[in-house]
Amino acid sequence: MAFMVPLRELLSFHSVDRQLFSRLLLNCSRKPSETLLVMALWLWLEEIGYPNIVPKILKLPDAIVNAMANEAVLCLKCLCSDTTPSHLLYGNLPFSTKSMEMEISPHIFFQNRFTSISGIKKLLNSVCSWAFTDILVQVLPSSTSQVRLNQPLAIPDFPHPVFGDVTIVRRPLDYCFPIGGLHGWNPTTEAPVDDRTMFLTFSRGNKVTENDVMELFTGLFGDCVDSVNMEEVARNRQPLFARLVLRSVSTVDSILNGKSIAKFTINSKHIWARKYERRD
User: Fold this and answer.
1) Measured between alpha carbons, how far is residue 124 from residues 119, 138, 251 in Å?
2) pTM over 0.85
Protein backbone atom coordinates (compact mmCIF):
# COMPACT_ATOMS: atom_id res chain seq x y z
CA MET A 1 0.00 0.00 0.00
CA ALA A 2 1.41 3.40 -1.01
CA PHE A 3 2.25 5.88 1.73
CA MET A 4 0.14 9.00 1.20
CA VAL A 5 1.24 12.51 2.19
CA PRO A 6 -0.93 15.64 2.03
CA LEU A 7 0.16 18.51 -0.18
CA ARG A 8 0.43 20.79 2.86
CA GLU A 9 3.27 18.69 4.30
CA LEU A 10 5.04 18.35 0.96
CA LEU A 11 5.00 22.12 0.45
CA SER A 12 6.51 22.55 3.90
CA PHE A 13 9.23 20.03 3.07
CA HIS A 14 10.07 21.99 -0.10
CA SER A 15 9.80 25.41 1.54
CA VAL A 16 13.40 26.34 0.62
CA ASP A 17 12.83 25.42 -3.04
CA ARG A 18 9.61 27.43 -3.01
CA GLN A 19 11.34 30.50 -1.59
CA LEU A 20 13.92 30.42 -4.36
CA PHE A 21 11.31 29.87 -7.07
CA SER A 22 9.31 32.82 -5.73
CA ARG A 23 12.35 35.09 -5.75
CA LEU A 24 13.18 34.15 -9.33
CA LEU A 25 9.64 34.95 -10.48
CA LEU A 26 8.70 37.91 -8.30
CA ASN A 27 12.03 39.60 -7.50
CA CYS A 28 13.93 38.80 -10.69
CA SER A 29 10.89 38.90 -13.02
CA ARG A 30 11.89 35.72 -14.85
CA LYS A 31 9.61 33.77 -17.21
CA PRO A 32 7.59 31.00 -15.50
CA SER A 33 8.45 28.30 -18.07
CA GLU A 34 12.17 29.07 -17.97
CA THR A 35 12.16 29.23 -14.17
CA LEU A 36 10.53 25.81 -13.89
CA LEU A 37 13.35 24.36 -15.99
CA VAL A 38 16.03 26.22 -14.02
CA MET A 39 14.66 24.81 -10.76
CA ALA A 40 14.45 21.31 -12.24
CA LEU A 41 18.09 21.61 -13.35
CA TRP A 42 19.26 22.72 -9.90
CA LEU A 43 17.25 19.98 -8.16
CA TRP A 44 18.74 17.42 -10.53
CA LEU A 45 22.26 18.66 -9.78
CA GLU A 46 21.54 18.12 -6.09
CA GLU A 47 20.50 14.55 -6.91
CA ILE A 48 23.77 13.75 -8.69
CA GLY A 49 26.23 15.12 -6.16
CA TYR A 50 26.18 18.92 -6.01
CA PRO A 51 24.91 19.22 -2.42
CA ASN A 52 22.61 21.90 -1.02
CA ILE A 53 22.56 24.04 -4.14
CA VAL A 54 19.21 25.66 -3.41
CA PRO A 55 19.98 26.67 0.21
CA LYS A 56 23.32 28.11 -0.94
CA ILE A 57 21.69 30.16 -3.69
CA LEU A 58 18.95 31.36 -1.37
CA LYS A 59 21.53 33.12 0.83
CA LEU A 60 22.76 35.25 -2.08
CA PRO A 61 21.46 38.70 -3.16
CA ASP A 62 18.96 38.85 -6.00
CA ALA A 63 21.52 40.09 -8.54
CA ILE A 64 23.71 36.99 -8.00
CA VAL A 65 20.67 34.70 -7.95
CA ASN A 66 19.62 36.15 -11.31
CA ALA A 67 23.16 35.72 -12.69
CA MET A 68 23.17 32.06 -11.62
CA ALA A 69 19.80 31.56 -13.28
CA ASN A 70 21.27 33.01 -16.49
CA GLU A 71 24.10 30.48 -16.24
CA ALA A 72 21.57 27.68 -15.76
CA VAL A 73 19.71 28.87 -18.88
CA LEU A 74 23.00 28.71 -20.80
CA CYS A 75 23.34 25.06 -19.77
CA LEU A 76 19.76 24.37 -20.84
CA LYS A 77 20.50 25.88 -24.24
CA CYS A 78 23.51 23.60 -24.61
CA LEU A 79 21.26 20.61 -23.97
CA CYS A 80 18.82 21.79 -26.64
CA SER A 81 21.40 21.93 -29.43
CA ASP A 82 23.23 19.20 -31.34
CA THR A 83 26.01 21.64 -32.21
CA THR A 84 26.67 24.01 -29.36
CA PRO A 85 29.27 26.71 -30.24
CA SER A 86 32.63 26.08 -28.59
CA HIS A 87 32.67 29.51 -26.91
CA LEU A 88 29.54 28.45 -25.02
CA LEU A 89 30.54 24.84 -24.50
CA TYR A 90 33.92 25.56 -22.96
CA GLY A 91 33.05 28.75 -21.15
CA ASN A 92 32.92 28.61 -17.39
CA LEU A 93 30.08 29.43 -15.04
CA PRO A 94 31.79 31.74 -12.52
CA PHE A 95 28.83 32.45 -10.24
CA SER A 96 27.67 28.82 -10.15
CA THR A 97 31.18 27.43 -9.62
CA LYS A 98 31.85 29.81 -6.72
CA SER A 99 28.47 29.25 -5.05
CA MET A 100 28.49 25.47 -5.45
CA GLU A 101 32.17 25.24 -4.49
CA MET A 102 32.57 22.67 -7.28
CA GLU A 103 33.68 22.98 -10.89
CA ILE A 104 30.75 23.14 -13.31
CA SER A 105 30.54 24.13 -16.98
CA PRO A 106 28.21 23.75 -19.98
CA HIS A 107 30.65 21.13 -21.29
CA ILE A 108 29.75 18.83 -18.38
CA PHE A 109 26.10 19.00 -19.40
CA PHE A 110 26.77 18.51 -23.09
CA GLN A 111 29.00 15.47 -22.52
CA ASN A 112 26.16 13.96 -20.48
CA ARG A 113 23.44 15.47 -22.61
CA PHE A 114 20.78 12.76 -22.62
CA THR A 115 21.35 11.80 -18.98
CA SER A 116 20.88 15.48 -18.11
CA ILE A 117 17.73 15.86 -20.21
CA SER A 118 16.18 12.73 -18.70
CA GLY A 119 17.00 13.82 -15.15
CA ILE A 120 15.68 17.36 -15.64
CA LYS A 121 12.45 16.03 -17.18
CA LYS A 122 12.01 13.71 -14.22
CA LEU A 123 12.40 16.49 -11.62
CA LEU A 124 10.22 18.83 -13.69
CA ASN A 125 7.36 16.34 -13.51
CA SER A 126 7.97 14.76 -10.11
CA VAL A 127 8.56 17.93 -8.06
CA CYS A 128 8.15 21.16 -10.01
CA SER A 129 4.75 20.09 -11.35
CA TRP A 130 3.12 20.47 -7.91
CA ALA A 131 5.56 22.31 -5.59
CA PHE A 132 5.14 25.79 -7.13
CA THR A 133 1.53 25.89 -8.33
CA ASP A 134 0.29 28.60 -5.96
CA ILE A 135 3.29 30.78 -6.79
CA LEU A 136 2.73 30.38 -10.52
CA VAL A 137 -0.87 31.52 -10.10
CA GLN A 138 0.44 34.91 -8.91
CA VAL A 139 2.30 35.62 -12.16
CA LEU A 140 0.39 33.82 -14.89
CA PRO A 141 -2.28 35.65 -16.92
CA SER A 142 -5.56 36.22 -15.08
CA SER A 143 -7.39 33.73 -17.29
CA THR A 144 -4.99 31.03 -16.06
CA SER A 145 -4.90 32.10 -12.42
CA GLN A 146 -8.70 31.79 -12.20
CA VAL A 147 -8.60 28.09 -13.03
CA ARG A 148 -10.51 26.09 -10.44
CA LEU A 149 -9.11 23.48 -8.11
CA ASN A 150 -8.22 20.15 -9.75
CA GLN A 151 -7.95 21.87 -13.13
CA PRO A 152 -4.62 22.18 -15.01
CA LEU A 153 -2.84 25.48 -15.51
CA ALA A 154 -1.79 26.56 -18.99
CA ILE A 155 1.95 27.23 -18.85
CA PRO A 156 3.27 29.31 -21.79
CA ASP A 157 6.06 27.67 -23.84
CA PHE A 158 5.07 24.14 -22.87
CA PRO A 159 5.26 21.55 -24.35
CA HIS A 160 8.97 22.24 -24.66
CA PRO A 161 10.71 20.84 -27.77
CA VAL A 162 13.34 19.03 -25.67
CA PHE A 163 11.96 18.69 -22.15
CA GLY A 164 8.41 17.85 -23.18
CA ASP A 165 5.24 18.80 -21.37
CA VAL A 166 4.45 19.33 -17.72
CA THR A 167 1.00 19.03 -16.17
CA ILE A 168 0.44 21.46 -13.31
CA VAL A 169 -2.89 21.12 -11.52
CA ARG A 170 -4.27 23.28 -8.72
CA ARG A 171 -4.87 21.02 -5.73
CA PRO A 172 -6.34 21.63 -2.25
CA LEU A 173 -3.82 21.52 0.60
CA ASP A 174 -5.31 18.30 1.94
CA TYR A 175 -4.88 16.51 -1.40
CA CYS A 176 -2.72 13.43 -0.83
CA PHE A 177 0.12 12.22 -3.04
CA PRO A 178 1.67 8.76 -3.00
CA ILE A 179 5.14 9.46 -1.64
CA GLY A 180 6.97 6.85 -3.72
CA GLY A 181 8.21 8.33 -6.98
CA LEU A 182 7.45 11.96 -6.20
CA HIS A 183 11.08 12.82 -5.68
CA GLY A 184 14.35 11.31 -6.73
CA TRP A 185 15.85 10.22 -10.01
CA ASN A 186 17.75 7.16 -11.16
CA PRO A 187 19.22 6.88 -14.68
CA THR A 188 18.71 3.10 -14.79
CA THR A 189 15.27 2.35 -13.40
CA GLU A 190 13.35 5.59 -13.82
CA ALA A 191 14.23 6.82 -17.28
CA PRO A 192 11.40 6.18 -19.80
CA VAL A 193 12.14 3.69 -22.55
CA ASP A 194 12.37 6.39 -25.24
CA ASP A 195 15.06 8.18 -23.21
CA ARG A 196 17.13 4.97 -23.21
CA THR A 197 16.63 4.08 -26.88
CA MET A 198 19.07 4.53 -29.77
CA PHE A 199 18.41 4.30 -33.48
CA LEU A 200 20.90 2.18 -35.41
CA THR A 201 21.40 2.15 -39.18
CA PHE A 202 23.38 -0.34 -41.27
CA SER A 203 25.01 -0.18 -44.70
CA ARG A 204 23.71 -2.31 -47.54
CA GLY A 205 25.58 -5.43 -48.62
CA ASN A 206 26.81 -6.68 -45.23
CA LYS A 207 23.92 -8.07 -43.21
CA VAL A 208 23.97 -6.99 -39.57
CA THR A 209 22.26 -9.41 -37.20
CA GLU A 210 20.81 -8.98 -33.73
CA ASN A 211 23.76 -10.98 -32.39
CA ASP A 212 26.17 -8.53 -34.05
CA VAL A 213 24.47 -5.64 -32.26
CA MET A 214 24.49 -7.42 -28.91
CA GLU A 215 28.13 -8.44 -29.27
CA LEU A 216 29.23 -4.94 -30.27
CA PHE A 217 27.59 -2.96 -27.49
CA THR A 218 28.02 -5.45 -24.65
CA GLY A 219 31.64 -5.85 -25.65
CA LEU A 220 32.26 -2.11 -25.51
CA PHE A 221 29.93 -1.01 -22.69
CA GLY A 222 29.25 -4.12 -20.61
CA ASP A 223 25.82 -5.53 -19.73
CA CYS A 224 24.01 -2.48 -21.07
CA VAL A 225 21.43 -3.85 -23.53
CA ASP A 226 17.77 -4.23 -22.60
CA SER A 227 16.54 -5.27 -26.06
CA VAL A 228 17.28 -5.04 -29.78
CA ASN A 229 14.39 -4.49 -32.19
CA MET A 230 15.52 -5.17 -35.75
CA GLU A 231 13.66 -3.91 -38.81
CA GLU A 232 11.11 -6.53 -39.90
CA VAL A 233 11.99 -7.65 -43.41
CA ALA A 234 11.36 -10.62 -45.70
CA ARG A 235 13.62 -13.63 -45.16
CA ASN A 236 15.77 -12.87 -48.23
CA ARG A 237 16.33 -9.20 -47.38
CA GLN A 238 18.64 -7.50 -44.90
CA PRO A 239 17.44 -5.11 -42.19
CA LEU A 240 18.75 -1.59 -42.57
CA PHE A 241 17.93 -0.26 -39.11
CA ALA A 242 17.17 -1.28 -35.53
CA ARG A 243 16.13 0.24 -32.21
CA LEU A 244 18.52 -0.47 -29.35
CA VAL A 245 16.98 -0.15 -25.87
CA LEU A 246 19.61 0.30 -23.17
CA ARG A 247 19.36 -0.37 -19.45
CA SER A 248 20.59 3.13 -18.55
CA VAL A 249 20.26 6.51 -20.22
CA SER A 250 23.85 7.23 -19.18
CA THR A 251 25.00 4.58 -21.69
CA VAL A 252 23.48 6.69 -24.47
CA ASP A 253 25.95 9.45 -23.56
CA SER A 254 28.81 6.94 -23.32
CA ILE A 255 28.05 5.65 -26.81
CA LEU A 256 27.74 9.09 -28.41
CA ASN A 257 30.61 10.67 -26.43
CA GLY A 258 29.41 14.22 -27.10
CA LYS A 259 28.59 13.63 -30.79
CA SER A 260 25.20 13.38 -32.50
CA ILE A 261 26.17 10.22 -34.43
CA ALA A 262 28.69 7.51 -33.52
CA LYS A 263 30.12 4.97 -35.97
CA PHE A 264 31.14 1.42 -35.04
CA THR A 265 32.45 -1.62 -36.88
CA ILE A 266 31.98 -5.30 -36.03
CA ASN A 267 32.95 -8.24 -38.21
CA SER A 268 33.72 -5.72 -41.02
CA LYS A 269 30.14 -4.40 -40.79
CA HIS A 270 29.40 -0.72 -40.15
CA ILE A 271 26.82 0.45 -37.59
CA TRP A 272 25.82 4.09 -37.05
CA ALA A 273 24.13 5.03 -33.77
CA ARG A 274 22.17 8.13 -32.84
CA LYS A 275 19.58 9.03 -30.22
CA TYR A 276 16.13 7.68 -31.03
CA GLU A 277 13.38 10.28 -31.44
CA ARG A 278 9.78 9.16 -31.52
CA ARG A 279 7.81 10.51 -34.48
CA ASP A 280 4.10 10.15 -33.76
Assistant:
1) 9, 19, 22
2) yes
